Known about the structure:
- The protein has helices at 36-49, 152-158, 164-198, 205-225, 230-237, 241-268, 275-289, 293-299, 302-323, and strands at 26-27, 52-55, 65-74, 77-90, 112-118, 132-146, 326-327.
- By secondary structure, it is an alpha+beta fold.
- Helix 1 crosses helix 3 and helix 2 (152-158) crosses helix 3 (164-198).
Amino acid sequence: KENGLTFKATVTTMPVVDIKDYKGLKIAPKSIEVTEEDVDAKVKELLDRYSRMVTVDRGAENDDIVVMDFEGFLDGQPFEGGQAENYSLTLGTKMFIPGFEEQLIGHKAGDDVEVNVTFPEDYQAKELAGKAAVFKVKVHEIKKKELPEINDEFAQDVSEFDTLDEYKEDVKKGIAEQKEKAARQEKQEKIIRQIVENAEMDIPDPMVVTQTRQMMDQFAQQMQSNGLSMAQYYQFTGLTPDGLLEQMKPQAQKNIENRLVLEAIVAAENIEVSDERLDEELAKMAESYKMEVEKLKEFMGENEKKQMKEDIAVQDAVTLIVDASVEG
């Protein structure tokens, strides 16, 4: 209290980005072709969507779903996280420890199966890494996918068309649109990467770590929406949090580089987003969420609106560099 307090803080600052040429960049043209194989594959996707799972009275095969209870043992003792009831496992997905799924092939509902596996040496749970385990499995049910027949009736059920040929022609148009969109996205990415390669910037490590952790949080939310916790994901894949972090770092670095050069272009071109433009985008967003735009605005603070303006400006920068590019 008498002498006050002195402290030293070390902070990470945003890097300075020096961009070079970003207009008139050459990009090789890409042809868009839709083959019969593309159409057949798309129709098969739809068949899968309209398929139904039926219980079968036979031994399990690859692509079947095995509904089971299981409990894992090390040296005769159950271990934590090695139990589940009425678990549905699709054979052939390699979701479990190597060798687990293969030992269920051929077994029927009602079978009791002892599955012998060895955990990988690099398994994320150190107490299990490299150890042999026995899983006692009770098979309750075997299910297989039953696909509808492809004919005019199927086309009528899934579309507004009367014949399968008409439906396939519409599918072909849809694939062409998807391929064109993917080609535009690829073109954007190539142009941005050219600008990144020509730019000068020194990205600090804490920035990459922060971006990577944000990506991990998004991935965890995605896993949770699919009914899988990160603990289960690590157990099934043998990855560790640090291992996943390292896997994601290159993409995090790339995302930062892309964003920084686009923000530099926004500044160089004095791209600004008006309140009217923001209102237009908010109206589109409200329509997609099927809610009133005024209600949406109530949920958004000034920081969110500012961030949205920045995102729109960055997208305008993307449009600018793509329009200024040349094929060659």
